[in-house]
Write a structure and sequence with these properties.
Structural class: alpha+beta
Distance between the termini: 81 Å
Shape: elongated
Number of helices: 7
Radius of gyration: 28 Å
Oligomer: single chain
Strand content: 5-15%
Order of helices and strands: HHHHHEEHHEEEE
Length: 189
């Protein structure tokens, strides 16, 4: 009974054939798609978000590996299994990075301060390969165009540039009115 089932699966998936039919590739694609969805769920969506190169690498390698299961250029079940191993490794490295700062820095890199009190730190900009135009574009994307308003800017491990703006100075105006009327104080910020 089990031998018959294994033989049927082998024929349906074309496991022992050099050339696959349309239907065999379609069935393989269906199984690989379902497996990939399971892999993404195991990876907890992390590598599909805007994160580090570490996360992007998994997406690229995983796509490359599991596509071979569809085309038949690699053995079907071992290839799907390799996809699950890659997601498991990614999960383990992400979990390790959470608990061990040195591992997180090794895998994901570290952030760099690019601007301090409105002044560009050119050495850090050069090390990060960020031009002034890149910095100003990111600043505009954050709703400002004035570098003077930036307390600090950091090139984050995700590749994004984050900004902390300076506290706005409050301008206080006092208006005195004569003949028994109180002084009015207005704060403009």
């Amino acid at each position: 009974m089990i031998d018959n089932l294994l033989e049927f699966v082998g024929v349906v998936l074309g496991l022992d054939q050099d050339k696959l039919t349309f239907w065999q590739m379609a069935i393989r694609a269906l199984i690989v798609y379902a497996s990939a969805v399971a892999m993404v769920r195991l990876g907890e969506k992390r590598f599909l978000g805007r994160n580090t190169a570490f996360d992007v690498i998994l997406g690229i390698v995983l796509g490359s590996v599991i596509s071979r299961a569809i085309t038949g250029s690699a053995p079907f079940f071992p290839t799907v299994g390799a996809g699950f191993v890659l997601v498991g490794l990614h999960w383990a490295m992400a979990a390790g990075s959470f608990h061990l700062d040195w591992l997180g820095t090794l895998i994901k890199g570290s952030e760099r301060e690019l601007v301090k009190e409105g002044e560009i730190l050119w050495d850090e900009m050069q090390k990060s390969h960020i031009s002034k135009k890149d910095l100003m574009g990111a600043l505009r994307m954050n709703g400002s165009s004035e570098l003077d308003s930036v307390k600090s800017a950091h090139f984050e491990r995700s590749g994004d540039i984050s900004f902390i703006t300076k506290d706005k100075e409050v301008c206080v105006k006092e208006i005195s009115v004569h003949e028994g009327v109180q002084t009015v104080r207005i704060e403009i910020g």
